[in-house]
């Protein structure tokens, strides 16, 4: 029976990796997902980035067991010749299976409900402080509370994008629009588009949008070659302006993070107003409209322009903590140039991430990002289980000699600033009219 099967080589599979011709392999079976790109819940970009490869580990990571039954309609009839599974992939898939049997992917606890109540309380207190008190200091504190509200709603939006935090898909969608668009002014559609690419292409300087912050930041001298961003479909020019800004990026990092939310506002509108296919575009726009009605209205209720500016700056600066947290997990980790390789799924996910070590009572502050390695390996896993599975992940990494890096919040900040400083000094070196010092470059190149 096996002799009647039709086989293709990996080289032949790799040819099917362009728009209009997307083939993938899952457990050695070849699937044509070209037409699925427009309907894929995760968007077309993950399919395009991983096309032409065996994507079993990525599929297992992102899809529940119920998704397997939908694969048959994409089956081409071909099998991958000489298909094999590495030892690390075997152990990784075994862990996914064991966690599934233990119910970890289904048991979400009451964290989302409690956090939603907490967010509602923060909103009520902040609104009360603005409308019913005359104290400047209270108004300043309310601005800070608003920023803290955005952080907590951001964790909810992050969770709801990875797995269903509510009782039904419809309620989960409502939670996404509420916590992302309505409360925070950030399109959940943009976030999912960006975040899916980040997970699939973790720490690829030209494919991972979470590293592409030119002209303000460059975590590696690899950006000095004016690479093309395959996410934004544009060239990241390392011109004189970028060189100047990058040269001082270790000084400007925290000030820029205080106002990084402005970029998220802009990216949300850029996507929704673009010609890209955006699911539920009307809902997304309506949610943003809600935010841009209530937030300016609250600010306008303050007695003078000084306090209004103070309120906005406080809310932006406090939520800047979350933007810093996003950077800590990846900026100081190794980076690479080029598309992701699904055959090295575990190696890429562990090599590009950094955990934040903290006590369990501080888990609420980090929103799951303190176990970033666990989250990248098991993105569907509710964050209430990340601490439980950490020993299993450490054992996996130790057995297969994979990196498992962890640092305290303050140490991670120092590592991030150190990475930015190293790249900044290299950018300054480029401005000197002397031949490039290849030895210095080899010693100091990050990643």
Task: Reconstruct the topology from this structure.
Layout: E1 6-8, H1 10-14, E2 17-18, E3 21-26, E4 29-32, H2 44-50, H3 56-62, E5 75-80, H4 87-101, H5 111-132, H6 136-162, H7 169-184, H8 188-200, E6 228-229, E7 234-235, H9 240-247, H10 249-258, H11 261-272, H12 281-300, H13 305-328, H14 345-351, E8 355-357, H15 363-366, H16 372-377, H17 386-399, E9 406-408, H18 409-430, H19 438-444
Parallel strand pairs: 1-5, 8-9
Antiparallel strand pairs: 2-3, 3-4, 4-5, 6-7
Helix pairs in contact: 2-8, 5-6, 6-7, 6-13, 7-12, 8-11, 9-18, 10-18
Which keywords apply here?
447 residues, alpha/beta, five-stranded mixed β-sheet, 7% strand, globular, disordered C terminus
Number of helices: 19
Helix and strand composition category: alpha/beta
Biggest sheet strand line-up: 1-5-4-3-2
Report the C-alpha radius of gyration, rounded.
Answer: 23 Å
Strand fraction band? 5-15%
Largest pleated sheet: 5 strands, mixed
Give helix % range.
55-70%
Low-confidence stretches: 433-447
N→C terminal distance: 48 Å
Report the count of strand segments: 9
Quote the average pLDDT. Answer: 91
What is the chain-wise order of helices and strands?
A: EHEEEHHEHHHHHEEHHHHHHEHHHEHH
Shape designation:
globular
Family: Belongs to the fatty acid desaturase type 1 family.
Main location: membrane
Protein name: Cytochrome b5 heme-binding domain-containing protein
Pathway: Lipid metabolism
